[in-house]
Amino acid sequence: MEARSQLRHRPTPNRQNQCNTTPLAKPNPHVQDRKNYRIFTCAIIPNASTSYNKSLMRHSRRVALLVPTLLLALFSASCGLLVRSRTILRHGKPVVQGQAQKLLSASKTELNERIANLYNPINSFQATVDMTPSIGSVYKGQITEIKDVRAFVLYRKASDIRIIGQTPVVRTRAFDMVSNGTAFQLYISSKNLFVQGLNSAPANSKNKIENLRPDAFLSSMLIRPAEASETSILMDQTDEENAQYVLLFLRKGNNGELVASRSVWFDRLDLSIERQIVYDAQGNIISDTRYAKWQVFERISFPAHIDINRPQDGYGVAMDIMQMQMNKAITDEQFVLTRPEGTQLQVIGANASGTAPAAPVQPK
Question: pTM of the entire structure?
Answer without folding.
Answer: 0.72
